[in-house]
Automatic annotation (TrEMBL):
<dbReference type="InterPro" id="IPR043154">
    <property type="entry name" value="Sec-1-like_dom1"/>
</dbReference>
<dbReference type="InterPro" id="IPR027482">
    <property type="entry name" value="Sec1-like_dom2"/>
</dbReference>
<comment type="similarity">
    <text>Belongs to the STXBP/unc-18/SEC1 family.</text>
</comment>
<dbReference type="InterPro" id="IPR036045">
    <property type="entry name" value="Sec1-like_sf"/>
</dbReference>
<dbReference type="Pfam" id="PF00995">
    <property type="entry name" value="Sec1"/>
</dbReference>
<protein>
    <submittedName>
        <fullName>SEC1 family transport protein SLY1</fullName>
    </submittedName>
</protein>
<dbReference type="InterPro" id="IPR043127">
    <property type="entry name" value="Sec-1-like_dom3a"/>
</dbReference>
<dbReference type="InterPro" id="IPR001619">
    <property type="entry name" value="Sec1-like"/>
</dbReference>
Amino acid sequence: MVTELYCKATSLAFPCFRCPPSPDLARPCPTTGRHFHQQPRLLNQHHISGSQHSPPSEKRENPKMALNLRQKQMDCIIRMLNLNQPPNPGVSITIAGVSTEEVYKILVLDRFCRDLLSPLIHVKDLRKHGITLYFVIDKERQTVPDVPAIYFVQPTPANIARIVADASRGIYESFHLNFSSSLPRPLLEELAAGTLKSDAVGRISKVFDQYLEFVTLENNLFSLAQRDVYVQLNDPSAGDPEIEAVLEKIAGGLFCVLATLGVVPVIRCPSGGPAQMVAAALDSRLRDHLITKNNLFSGSGNLSISFQRPILCLFDRNFELAVALQHDWSYRSLVHDVLDMKLNKVSVQGEKYPLKSYELDDSDPFWASNSWSPFEKIALEIDSQLNKYKQDVEEVNRRTGGQKGAEFDGTDLIGNTKHLMNAVNSLPELTERKKVIDKHTNLATVLLGEIKKRALDSFCSLENEMSIKGNVDKNQLLTQLKERGTKEDKLRLAIIYLLSAETTPQSELESVEAVLRESEVDTCAYQYVKKIKSLNMSMMSSAASASRSNIVDWAGKLYGQSLNAVAAGMKNLLSGERQLALTRTVEALMEGKPNPEVDSYLLYDPRAPRSGTGSQLKGPFKEGIVFMIGGGNYIEYKSLTELAQRSQPTKHIMYGTTEILNGVEFVQQLQILGQKTGLGSSGINPSQ
């Protein structure tokens, strides 16, 4: 339902979704004289004007689809593009008091929301929903009269100021404002005051909180798109207010994810560090929201059976540091690491063709079927599909081609006509198949060139050997560091070697550092991890007495968790099963059985009373959300996907993170921390 929001600061009524209720807002609208009481909005799938609306519980009728985040976010986006009304063909939409069958609109985005839409909807799909033009909000735009504008932006002071300026100029007929997360009260009052001052109130049609501040890359993969969180949380100069602001922002992003899903999970996390801080903040935010009568989760019911609610497992990047640095041999990981895939898009420059951009998602059948395959199988699969394509083309030509010297026969004409029609109908499918084959041929060719140039197979082999044996031949390691590979490749290998064993002789460490310096590699990141590892060893004996009251005391506790996990799990880091320490922990948490590895993990249940023994929902769970604070990667995503598939019965596991990082990006964050700690030079040298 849509209700009028009355702003006590400006005596202005806005149609808006807000929560929680406040008696200050139960005042009469100055325009109509009626009382509009503030109501919390329902699931954002159910934004419906007027009193007619579908029960939220209808969205939960299929438990297997409960965590289909991509589809639910897409439903919200489509509804927003249809002026927050159901996109029913043939049903008229009322705008500015006029009923019309089709409304042409302009879409205005900020850069965050543009990236949010990028993996979900194409330009051609925007046109299907009446979007004729779209712009970035911080660019100058011309007046387009008699056309409504849909704004989809983050609730920031800069965006509010720009909206007020646009409304004051009257560049569009009406403004439908949609914010990616909850609009804070001060910004709402600033919006109201600004439009009232410029006499632009009438142009503001409605204001919506969409709770969509996250990027869904795949059905089971999402990112909050919050950059450099790892640096912000581990910055030695950061104070409590800065760290708490980062943690609150992460909790806010997770709240948006859960609001879109319409589920209230049971939260598990290790004790201490950012994971516990985010868990506590999210638990508090959910509890405060659930006390309202018609809240975002009212459709999910008061479920008490554990498998009907998912488990949310929170970790921070230091839990398993080496995974963020390692080289991987799967096609998808190579495309992300080597070709720098962003938002499911990649651009490559070939020797014989100009720069080309490609989209890689589930709409690409080759990518969907083969992206997790080892790279050596990709060339074979491309060759197989190319041969199949050629056979199909030859078959079409054979069926449609006439025989020389044959007499005219009406029967043959009918038969050839049918074959010709079938051939014409098959042309679009054959053309699309050829485009897909050419795309992956180009990508594989560029990847092969980089693999040979950088000897990536050797890096993968050495890291695999370290994972199996817990060590590696010193001469082989030093040889690899001296030869091919970029400076970042060598730095990543050196840090993984540093983390691969609990203790490493000082002479070996000095040899590695000497080789890195000979290759002109900035060792800030290496020195930073080395220092933290040393700190971890000294903290082990006093861990029991370490204070947990100070946020900035994280270093010892965080890396204590990290290096313990690495020492226990490095042997399986790159083995065939890829059973990472993260995956083993998630499996144990979802099983809910007594396990010394997870018995100390904290449990938060926002639906349980604050007092008393707390929640008894400890598993087993059929659905899980795993969230990595400080940067995630496709290696962990693949490992969790394999866990879900091999489980009996099959589990549903989603993987989310503050941002998706490849090894180069993460080592650069370590480099920044090393510089902030005063352990090296001012910047990382360019790759060679």
